[in-house]
Amino acid sequence: MKILIPGMDGYIGWALALKQLKIGNQVCGIDNFSRRRNVEEMGSYSALPILEMKERLKFLRETFGEKVSFFQGDLLDVDFTNDIVSKVKPDVIVHLAEQPSAPYSMIDQEHNIYTQKNNVIGTLNLLHSVQKHVPKAHLIKLGTMGEYGYDPGLDIPEGFFEVEFRGKKATVPFPKIAGSWYHWTKVHDSNNIMFACKLWNLKSTDIMQGIVYGTKTEQTIDENYHTRFDFDEAFGTSMNRFCAQAVIGYPLTIHGSGGQTRGFLALSDSIQCISLLIDNPPDDGEYRVVNQFDEQYSVLEIAKKIQNIGNQKGLNVEIKSKENPRLESEKHYYNADHEKLKNLGFKRTREIDDEIGIMIEHLLPYKDRIEERKEVIVKNIKWQK
Amino acid sequence: MKILIPGMDGYIGWALALKQLKIGNQVCGIDNFSRRRNVEEMGSYSALPILEMKERLKFLRETFGEKVSFFQGDLLDVDFTNDIVSKVKPDVIVHLAEQPSAPYSMIDQEHNIYTQKNNVIGTLNLLHSVQKHVPKAHLIKLGTMGEYGYDPGLDIPEGFFEVEFRGKKATVPFPKIAGSWYHWTKVHDSNNIMFACKLWNLKSTDIMQGIVYGTKTEQTIDENYHTRFDFDEAFGTSMNRFCAQAVIGYPLTIHGSGGQTRGFLALSDSIQCISLLIDNPPDDGEYRVVNQFDEQYSVLEIAKKIQNIGNQKGLNVEIKSKENPRLESEKHYYNADHEKLKNLGFKRTREIDDEIGIMIEHLLPYKDRIEERKEVIVKNIKWQK
Q1: No. of helices (H) and no. of strands (E), chain A
Q2: For the NAD-dependent epimerase/dehydratase domain, which residue ranges apply (chains A, B) (predicted)?
């Protein structure tokens, strides 16, 4: 199969590209390197050193030859996007080319508008290219569990649910009540994709993904193949940030009481899930929503796990509460379905505690790099100024 | 009160400005004149001749002096928008500055992207300006009943409904299942506005408006004060198009069986409703949704009304079915609430049959203008190419 990966230079994109090449598929990447620039803007970098794309490709070509290709460009560029999609004619597109940070989108008007344009218009351009050039391709799009919001007061199904209202029943989209400008762009995308599937008979899987953590997959162990690992407030996910904090003896900073419950998923399992979705496309015209996470935990539970495991390794890990800069419930009912991927064969690679141990061990040699930029871990980007 | 009206040059914007001036409020208009350009792009113009804004303002200033002001510019221009909002410091903003045509958004990729950028980013810029400069102002935003979709299989409440799912109850946004790229931009806007109200404690009324019809209000009778009246496929609403067709002896073109049921509202009543909302703002932080229409009819029922009334006036009005270019149900359950505006005091100005008679009489002297551009009435902009 030929897999097009917009966002191939990112945390998941790079690991996914390696996995797909490993199993024998052709991979064509696209990236505009905005993630590198935006992390730099935050004053940070990847804790694990990563190579420039030119060098990354050099190593890949040694092993995979013509099976890998890459184009630098932007989905906002209509001609570029049409050009690549029409030339590559992918069987599957895994669209990861979005601005992925909630705090980044909340910095100010400029960052909000940038996020909305980049995500919503980029996805629309891609949809139009698919319709024109590869209407039978399977578009896999990375959304977030945050689209549903974390406190809807109801169980969260996978995309749709049956409701009864004044004596009539219908199956309708589950309400979306996102909590940041970034999260709303993912909702707008989902809505646009749902419509495109109906309008043009496209097939798409919209992934409502939980919080991903981890430093590596089987394919990214060697330093030349590292995927990025962010630990700054904007681009580091909570679990990744906590591990970076543990390694440098910086207290794990939970927001408020840390009672925010979320779905979590290891990086290797995110790649496993996406690969399962690639192998099991929906029908023509189907808009399929999957909730992609392994287990639910509160942020405090995660912090305590990292504290325990870090302390077992001789680190002195503290947990410290700070004022919550976000607009979110710190104690809430949370129970989200996640059966579809299990039904496709998803099984976790390893237990979360083991993965945390691996992360800490992997990060320890890079302690100085994290230490050097430790001021980026807590920048206090406030939702309400 | 000081009312800012982005989109003042449009069909509703102009009529609303005149009404608000008439009752003694200050009005500041904004427009980039995109409606005039976009209608021209469709090969059309307003059936009722309208003046250029410069001349419109000359007449207004004779009567209202300093109470009226106007700025040419675009909400996509961040500095312009911030500048006007901070200088004018409006009490109320009635945001009508959107690309309002579903068919126009469906022409091709370029028209879709234009619509999404114009509407979504324009509204976001306005929200940021309100937050920065007039956080206590009441933002009234024009949405559409089409945000809910026309065949959800459930009664349609005003914005929110209580659902029970697996034994838990919650009040959540009613699902949005729009049927064109344009309609989806209104959904994206609604979602962004709902979030802004929560985030910044803004107050906003989001109007889910039905199909507006009519050639005039009490304030737009004189030719110098005409508001525009579009009859082309993209910018003319179904009822307005039918009346234009009746006047020139062009069969009323219903799509398919004409069983599409919609909410309808006369222009003068749209202005009445917006004026009621201006006078009755929601609370700080409240995101209020109102369904703004008077009566529900199927498109065929509307066509028959116009046929009967036209024939009574000696016109020879035929109804002709054409292939439906849209993606929509032609027979469906439809029952939408519209109580909130009645509770604020809304009463229809006159019966729909009387308004149709007035429209036809008003259009008859401009028969030649419509005749000259009759090829724009059916352009056959298809949803699915």
Answers
A1: 14, 14
A2: 3-156
